[in-house]
Design a protein that fits this description.
Layout lengths: L1 H4 L2 H33 L8 H12 L8 H27 L6 H31 L17 H12 L8 H6 L2 H17 L9 H31 L4 H7 L3 H16 L8 H30 L2 H7 L1
Helix pairs in contact: 2-3, 2-4, 2-12, 4-5, 5-6, 5-8, 8-9, 9-12
Length: 312
């Protein structure tokens, strides 16, 4: 059991996933900026992603689409390292060399996601605040923040809002562990189909396409909860309403979902979906491509390539 959890193979998967995700996110980061603005700034009209980015550049400068890049990359690197490590170590200890199945991938993905959420949520709360700092919002009720960096954001949030604020949106994040779990279930299932009969390395095109398909399906299913998660992490709701109605995390989510539907209709739950799909699908596809290539090269150097493919 301990050998499966603390193994070089799990470490290789974790490092490969972290490096792949950081590289892919850097390439498509402006799309994530457009998505987050549409989710949080309720008064900004939903337009095409290029139009939103053009507005941001015009109003806030050429580098505005990359605002908050460093904290996002730090959070993403830590998050994907934890997730990939947990997923592959739990999978190795559970299956012990046996062939995996979609149900096993889903359960393992959920378990890895829970660990990841509990460990890395404070990083995502801080990076959401930093990413939106200095933005020109259509909603005048949003209060400006003034953080000088990651550490300063941690200090100010703890001082002004309490330690618990670092875990804002944790409940929605726990619900959203279904997103990577569904993504990995579909990805691993498609990979098994492509390798049926002969364990082999995926081509770059195969890794890119099945990564994109897996992420697109997971994103569409869970997008309304991702919107609520962004609002909670930003910590900018109307307090007079929230204190009386939002007595628990579940009621908080329900209240925010209902209010958004009342204001903007069902489509309001999917505001920013175009930008999210462009960003997350392309990022995930490129991330899986880098992940597969880095992992396979590393295992080849270590002389474990054949053993690695048989296990998967």
């Amino acid at each position: 059991m301990s050998d499966a959890i603390f193994s070089y193979e799990s470490l290789v998967h974790a490092v490969s996933g972290a490096v792949g995700s950081v590289t892919a996110m850097t390439v498509f980061f402006p799309l994530d900026t457009a998505r987050l603005r549409l989710q949080v700034d309720e008064h900004r009209k939903a337009k095409s992603t290029p139009t939103i980015l053009a507005e941001i550049v015009k109003e806030e400068g050429l580098l505005a689409p990359y605002r908050g890049w460093f904290p996002v990359i730090c959070s993403l690197c830590c998050s994907n390292f934890v997730y990939f490590y947990c997923f592959h170590s739990l999978k190795a200890s559970w299956l012990r060399g046996k062939q995996s199945s979609p149900s096993a991938d889903l359960i393992i993905g959920i378990a890895a996601g829970i660990v990841n959420v509990l460990v890395t949520t404070p990083l995502w709360v801080v990076n959401t605040r930093l990413k939106l700092q200095g933005a020109k919002f259509r909603n005048a009720e949003i209060r400006p923040t003034n953080y000088s960096g990651i550490l300063d954001a941690f200090v100010q949030i703890i001082r002004d809002e309490g330690v618990g604020a670092l875990w804002n949106g944790t409940f929605t994040s726990l619900l959203l562990v279904l997103n990577p779990a569904v993504q990995f279930m579909i990805y691993e299932g498609l990979k098994r189909q492509l390798r049926r009969g002969a364990p082999r390395e995926l081509s770059a095109v195969e890794a890119f396409v099945i990564g994109a398909v897996a992420k697109a399906a997971a994103t569409v299913v869970t997008y309304p909860l991702q919107t609520i998660q962004s609002i909670l992490r930003f910590g900018q709701f109307n307090e007079s309403t929230d204190k009386s109605k939002l007595l628990s995390s579940l009621r908080t989510i329900k209240c925010l979902l209902v209010n958004r539907v009342r204001k903007y209709g069902i489509l309001g739950l999917f505001k920013g979906l175009e930008a999210k799909l462009l960003q997350t699908v392309l990022t995930a596809a490129l991330m899986f491509l880098f992940y597969e290539k880095i992992a396979s090269c590393t295992f080849r150097v270590m002389g474990l390539n054949g053993k690695h493919y048989k296990k998967r």
